[in-house]
Structure prediction request, 141 residues.
Amino acid sequence: MTDATLGHIAPAGLAALAAFADRLDEPVGEWKGGDTLDEDAISMPWFAASAMVNDFVAAAYEHGLVVPFGWSDWMSDGGRDVVFADPAAMAAYPLADVQRTVTAIIRGDRFTEGALAEAFADGRMPALIRRLAALAGAPAA
Prediction:
């Protein structure tokens, strides 16, 4: 998938992603680690995602929600404002912005432990999932 395919997800894929709106009350996961091992060492904290979050990430890749594009450059060129917008503003995002935002969050989690957990906790990821549900229910253009 390239930048040219942003804004396109097959209807069945969009429906599968939108179904996660019904799972938003499930746990997101928990922080683990951070334990003192001895006087000079601790284990690094890490986030153990729940089944719902793992299922969502797998579906995001499977159905084209996570797309290959220059997300880190996009973040530097103003995408950060899109990713960290108020969740209420995300209700109007076009599908391409939902794809860019979810891609940046999921891929960013590889570099910043807990980025995905934070996006669920602060309401951004639930808002994006609700937007997918709205887009799935919209009449085809």
Remarks:
- Strands lie at 29-32, 36-38, 41-42, 46-49.
- The mean pLDDT is 90.
- Residues 12 and 62 are 11 Å apart (CA to CA).
